[in-house]
Amino acid sequence: MESNHSRKANKKAGILEELKAVLSGTPRCAYCGKPIMGKPYVWRGKKFCSRGCKRKYREELAKKRRKNKGIKLPKDTFEAIYWK
């Protein structure tokens, strides 16, 4: 069981590491925004920190495409065209 002091120290260390990465120009994940420390996963020119982030990004992109697919007409226009 971690003590409160060690959790705070770990949090500070993580923040310092992230700050160093930002200042050094380290690439950031296109999905979660965390700095990429190792070899990035690349898909369509975007860089990701893990396979999970890459998969989630692709799933969200697919949802947006499915949502925007097709022509959206107002209800009265739809009825006027199809229910003559």
Going by helix content, strand content and strand pairing, the class is mainly alpha
Mass-distribution shape: elongated
* Average pLDDT level: 78
Helices, by number, come to 3
User: What is the share of helical residues?
Assistant: 55-70%
Integer tally of domains: 1
Largest sheet: 2 strands, antiparallel
Extended strand count: 2
Please state the CA-atom Rg, rounded to the nearest Å: 22 Å
Distance between the termini: 72 Å
Q: What's the helix-strand series?
A: HEEHH
Strand content: 5-15%
- The order of strands across the largest sheet is 1-2
Spans with pLDDT under 50 lasting ≥5 residues? none
What does this entry look like structurally?
The chain is mainly alpha-helical and 84 residues long. It has one domain (4-82). The chain is 56% helix and 7% strand. The chain has helices at 4-24, 51-68, 75-82, and strands spanning 41-43, 46-48. Strand 1 (41-43) and strand 2 form a beta hairpin. The longest helix has 21 residues, at 4-24. The radius of gyration is 22 Å and the shape is elongated.
Task: Break the fold down into its secondary structure elements and pairings.
Layout lengths: L3 H21 L16 E3 L2 E3 L2 H18 L6 H8 L2
Antiparallel strand pairs: 1-2
Keywords:
single chain, 84 residues, mainly alpha, two-stranded antiparallel ribbon, 3 helices, 2 strands, elongated
